[in-house]
Specification:
This protein is an alpha/beta fold. The chain has helices at 16-29, 47-55, 72-82, 99-110, 132-149, 165-170, 181-191, 215-235, 266-277, and strands at residues 3-9, 34-40, 61-65, 87-90, 115-119, 126-128, 161-164, 196-200, 202-204. Helix content is 41%, strand content 15%. The chain has a 7-stranded mixed β-sheet, sandwiched between helices. A two-stranded parallel sheet has the order 6-9. The longest helix is centred in the last third of the chain and has 21 residues, at 215-235.
Length: 278
């Protein structure tokens, strides 16, 4: 299974080279067929030049200027139109996501799951330098999403996830232009019947540059997408449900043909995550 790593990057010249090199080294060491696709999201610095310098000596790396309007969601969507692999992982440009966890995602997909989701907050998941205000808001928002969708997952808003190609194709059309794409992709995958595994991952705050997420601008956009997918699940009568959805229990956290499973209790969830981690 060839894995494409899509990295949206806006003015990340100080971080992008290290991120690409670290990913390439880890994926090559593990013998994973891969490409690293950096989407230049209207950068005004040397982001593209830094990636192209690596691409000159590494055929698995390429850089494309986004053909869509500026914005995180548009940049990811551009990458999802251009990647060539059998599966795709969305990774941040600032090296906040661990390359080792990308390898773990690949192994999960090879086991037959449709999606690989990471949690930074359960059973071995770790964060380093997470700003306290963002942490509080993150926990509140994710608790609300978990309550609405009852999917047993506590880190839906994290962009760092991986999907098989057929999943990405079945989630179209995507609506989000901004960071709310980080919830549109996994929530659509869940309610449309795709299987997923949850594994602990680590997150490290950026050392260079500044975050592109503006909380004051995103609240209503997140709410719109969450409600949109919730309404799809409850009102569409299964029109968008994956037709070949496996019966729950056959492939890990596969969705039932009609409705989502109840969230597992703490003990069951802990046991499941330990099995996946092992």
């Amino acid at each position: 299974m060839k894995l494409s790593v899509v990295i949206p990057a806006h003015n990340e010249s100080e971080s992008i080279g290290e991120t690409v090199e670290a990913l390439s080294t880890e994926l090559t060491r593990e013998g994973i067929d891969h490409e690293i696709l950096v989407i230049d999201d209207a950068s005004t610095d040397e982001t593209a030049a830094a990636v192209l310098a690596i691409a000159d000596r590494n055929r698995s790396v390429r850089c494309e200027r986004s053909h869509l309007p500026a914005g995180f969601g548009h940049a990811v969507r551009a990458g999802l139109e251009l990647y060539t692999g059998d599966a795709v992982a969305i990774v941040m440009a600032d090296l906040s996501d661990s390359p080792r966890d990308v390898v773990r995602y690949h192994r999960i997909l090879e086991q037959g799951y449709d999606c690989a989701f990471g949690t930074r907050f359960s059973l071995g998941g770790r964060t380093h330098g997470y700003p306290i205000v963002k942490l509080v808001l993150n926990r509140v928002v994710n608790a609300g999403i978990r309550l609405l969708f009852r999917h047993g997952y506590d880190d839906t808003t994290n962009a760092f996830k991986a999907y098989r190609r057929e999943v990405i194709e079945q989630l179209q059309p995507l609506l989000s232009n901004h960071f709310n794409l980080t919830v549109e992709l996994p929530l659509k995958a869940v309610v449309r019947g795709h299987s997923y595994a949850i594994v602990p991952v680590s997150w490290t705050n950026r050392r260079h540059g500044e975050s592109k997420l503006r909380l004051s601008e995103m609240g209503s956009r997140y709410l719109f997408i969450v409600l949109y997918v919730w309404l799809e699940h409850h009102l569409s009568r299964g029109d968008y449900l994956r037709r070949d959805a496996p019966v729950a229990g056959q492939r890990g956290l596969a969705m039932k043909a009609h409705g989502m499973p109840s969230a597992p209790g703490p003990a069951a969830e802990a046991d499941r995550l330990r099995r996946i981690q092992a």
